[in-house]
Design goal:
The protein is an alpha+beta fold and 96 residues long. Helices cover 34% and strands 38% of the residues. A five-stranded antiparallel beta sheet has the order 1-2-3-4-5.
């Protein structure tokens, strides 16, 4: 699949969105891995040192590790900025 390691597919909906889902277990602690092949991005949700959930974002060879709350704030900020951009675009169409 375009150079991406094949992992279990969770559903047809995920496949259609270009998302490949899989999981790997490391002893008793498990992690879930999502691959966004269109953007060469991998999102790994795992437990940190104190069993707190962490999220690792890998875009190409660059990797960032975030606490779950930081990741949630990041996603919400991206959604809000996307909404603002879409609203501005739609308003500009109305002005023409």
């Amino acid at each position: 699949m375009d150079g991406v390691r094949r992992v279990q597919t969770r559903s047809h909906r995920c496949r259609a969105a270009g998302l490949i889902w899989g999981s790997c277990n490391r002893g008793k602690v498990g992690s879930v891995v999502y691959h966004l092949k269109k953007h060469n991005m991998t999102v790994t949700v795992a437990h940190g040192d104190r069993m707190e959930p962490i999220v690792q974002l890998a875009l190409g060879s660059e990797v960032r590790t975030l606490q779950l709350a930081e990741f949630t704030n990041f996603v919400l900020a991206m959604i809000e900025e996307g909404r603002k951009a879409t609203t501005a675009y739609l308003e500009s169409l109305g002005e023409l």
